[in-house]
Design goal:
The protein is mainly alpha-helical and 237 residues long. The protein contains 7 helices and 4 strands. The protein starts with 6 loop residues before the first strand and ends with a helix. Keywords: Membrane, Transmembrane, Transmembrane helix. This is Transmembrane protein 138.
């Protein structure tokens, strides 16, 4: 690889322009166990530029958008809690009304996880395509969402089959496996609500926006920040 070649980080519409830097650095990780011969390549801007400023030129605007998105996730979570509290279990004679209620419950569940993804789309994990690192950080929330969705579908399908067999609503609780399934689904749902709020708050951690930290270089990130502080101190002196 030619050292003076031009390396481009292709931007998207969100970044507003294509960033191009010409001084890649190489970190050999052969000394690490299980990584023989691997080489990590880090592309840095010129020394006088800060990569965070390059990636996020308008930090205040981004923070404002993220605040709105966070409150959106919070409102959706509270709405889902209220809908579940007042409509599940619910005894309805009309199949059409039952479908509407179930659709509302499931739609809010999807809206919560969708809103969380939109919130995290501002992080470097999404902007630079590091989805493996993204799932390493937030995979537990998505796993709980999938588990909750499966339990919810299983419970509703089971209840619908029993009701169409002329079983009364009160008799559902005595059906084999219905009560344990309902309790398990409720426990997972409460954990999902808590994880959604906690994860939405955690997104504001600066480590999701520092270009060095997400990609396994925390020591270099600290050294770079320390160097910038020393340079600023010398300039003030």
């Amino acid at each position: 690889m030619v050292e003076d070649a031009l390396y481009q980080l292709n931007g998207t519409g969100r970044l507003g322009k294509v960033q191009a830097w010409t001084n890649p650095t190489y970190d050999t990780t052969a000394s690490q166990p299980g990584a023989a011969g691997d080489t990590a390549i880090t592309v840095r801007p010129p020394a006088e530029l800060d990569l965070i400023d390059e990636m996020f030129p308008d930090g205040r605007s981004m923070l404002r958008r993220m605040s709105y998105q966070f409150w959106g996730v919070l409102v959706l979570t509270v709405a889902h809690i209220l809908v579940i509290a007042y409509t599940d279990p619910i005894f309805l004679k009309s199949p059409q009304t039952q479908v509407i209620v179930y659709s509302g419950q499931g739609g809010l569940l999807l809206a919560i996880i969708g809103g969380f993804f939109v919130l995290t789309s501002q992080t470097l994990y999404i902007r630079l395509g590091g989805y493996d690192l993204y799932l390493r950080e937030f995979g537990a929330l998505y796993a709980m969402f999938l588990l909750e969705a499966l339990l919810y579908l299983a419970m509703k399908i089971y209840a619908t089959v029993l009701l169409y067999r002329r079983m009364s609503y009160l008799a559902l609780w005595d059906a084999p496996g219905y009560t344990p399934l309902w309790v398990t689904q409720r426990v997972v749902l409460v954990l999902f609500w808590a994880a959604a709020i906690y994860s939405a708050l955690a997104v504001f951690n600066v480590r999701y926006f520092d270009p060095d930290l997400p990609f396994g270089q925390p020591q270099k990130a600290r050294a770079r920040r320390q160097g910038l502080r020393q340079a600023a101190g010398n300039g003030n002196g």
